[in-house]
Design goal:
- The protein has about 375 residues and is of the alpha/beta class.
- About 40% of the residues lie in helices and about 15% in strands.
- A seven-stranded parallel β-sheet has the order 3-2-1-4-5-6-7, with helices on both faces.
Length: about 375
């Protein structure tokens, strides 16, 4: 079986790591080919990582708004590699991939990670995506919260499968303690506790709320340091919030780090302040690294973080509740340790690529066996609670 993954990859982030992890976990009878819109050359790290794993990976020359030309190019790749299934990751891959799959005569699956409504252009494309989802042969949702939104778009329940994101927990077995020293060196004064966050610096991620919470924490625990990994359009806005709250020496913008996984185990707490989420990979990675999580109860996050066991959930936008949780967790090393261990166990039980790949394989086999005619079997839908 040949699976083609279509993406519009601006960097090697969470969705890209999901595609690579799935490809590595599928049985040897399956091969995966990666296609990505070039995105001005920014897709290259993702395609290079795919090639390093031994997969075919190609940058597309055509792009939106030349939809028909791009669909023709993709359909050519599908014919050339003998594709059995096309998986589309994101609204642009959905829109153009649907056209290409219909031309090539192969089943098409949308992998629905969530919608951000980040800009008017994104909102327009996401609206088009919602209109097209009912035409897909299947829609895989990364959380039950996202599945509820997808069903509201008119996608029949029998075409919706919940297959949650996964993480390679083995990557965190032997953490590099030198990274802790590296993080501490970014501050003018060595902090006792380090609170981390990571993600694209865009409005829906809520990082200005984190700056507000940080200011409250610093007033009570001045030897706390905050570090935010990532880059994006809201960097200047976040920098202004840091300056406004007087956090220049205690809140570090570390930029995008392809080796983020090496830094995570050296955090005392990970914070996710998002207003909207599908199912956040960085939370899974933090839990795999035995780091407790304070997160907003947005999207599929409550399906991962068990309140009071592996972390704490607060309402989106509530900087005071976030600060209160940090003030409670940081001085309590024993509690942080227990929560970190509980998070690790939860990942090992419910969020492995081995389990994820079995569900995807079942779906792919069904689609290739019936060419898009679905059974009304709930076995295709996972609910790993």
């Amino acid at each position: 079986m040949t699976i083609v993954q279509l993406a519009a990859s601006p960097f090697l982030g969470g969705p890209e790591r999901q595609m690579l992890g799935l490809a590595a976990s599928l049985p040897g009878s399956c091969s995966t080919v990666f296609l990505s819109f070039a995105e001005g050359g920014r897709s290259q790290p993702f395609l290079d990582a795919a090639r390093a794993q031994g997969h075919g990976a190609y940058a597309l020359s055509a792009n939106a708004p030349h939809y028909w030309r791009a669909a023709t190019e993709i359909a050519g790749h599908l014919h050339r590699v003998g594709a059995d299934v096309l998986c589309c990751n994101g609204y642009k891959p959905d829109i153009i991939g649907l056209l290409a799959a219909r031309r090539a005569g192969v089943p098409v699956v949308s992998i629905s990670h969530g919608w951000t409504a980040a800009t008017w252009k994104v909102r327009l494309n996401e609206s088009m995506d919602r209109l097209l989802l009912p035409l897909m042969d299947a829609v895989v949702c990364v959380s039950e919260a996202q599945a509820i939104r997808v069903r509201k778009c008119g996608v029949p329940s029998e075409r919706v499968a919940v297959i949650r994101n996964a993480v390679d927990h083995t990557a965190f077995v032997d953490p590099d303690g030198c990274r802790r020293i590296a993080i501490e060196s970014w501050f003018t004064k060595r902090p006792k506790w380090i609170v981390g966050a990571a993600g694209r610096l865009s409005r829906e991620k809520g990082f200005t709320v984190l700056a507000e919470a940080a200011a409250q924490v610093i007033r009570m625990l001045p030897n706390t340091g905050f570090v935010l990994f990532g880059d994006g359009p809201e960097r200047d806005s976040i920098q202004r919030a840091i300056k406004r709250h007087g956090l220049e020496e205690t809140f570090i913008l570390a930029g995008f780090r392809p080796d983020l996984a090496a830094f995570l185990p050296n955090l005392d707490v990970l914070v996710l302040p998002s207003f909207t989420e599908g199912l956040p990979v960085v939370v899974l990675e933090a839990m795999a690294a035995r780091v407790p999580v304070i997160a907003t109860a947005a999207g599929g996050t409550p399906e991962v973080v068990v309140e009071g066991i592996s972390g704490h959930l607060v309402s989106p936008g509530d900087s005071t509740a976030m600060a209160h949780s940090l003030l409670e967790f940081l001085p309590d090393e024993s509690r942080r340790h227990d929560m970190g261990q509980a998070g690790r166990s939860r990942v090992e039980e419910h969020f492995t690529f081995a389990a994820q790949s079995e569900l995807y394989l079942r779906l792919f086999e069904h689609l290739t066996g019936s060419r898009g005619r679905w059974e009304s079997s709930r076995a295709l839908v996972s609910s790993s609670n």
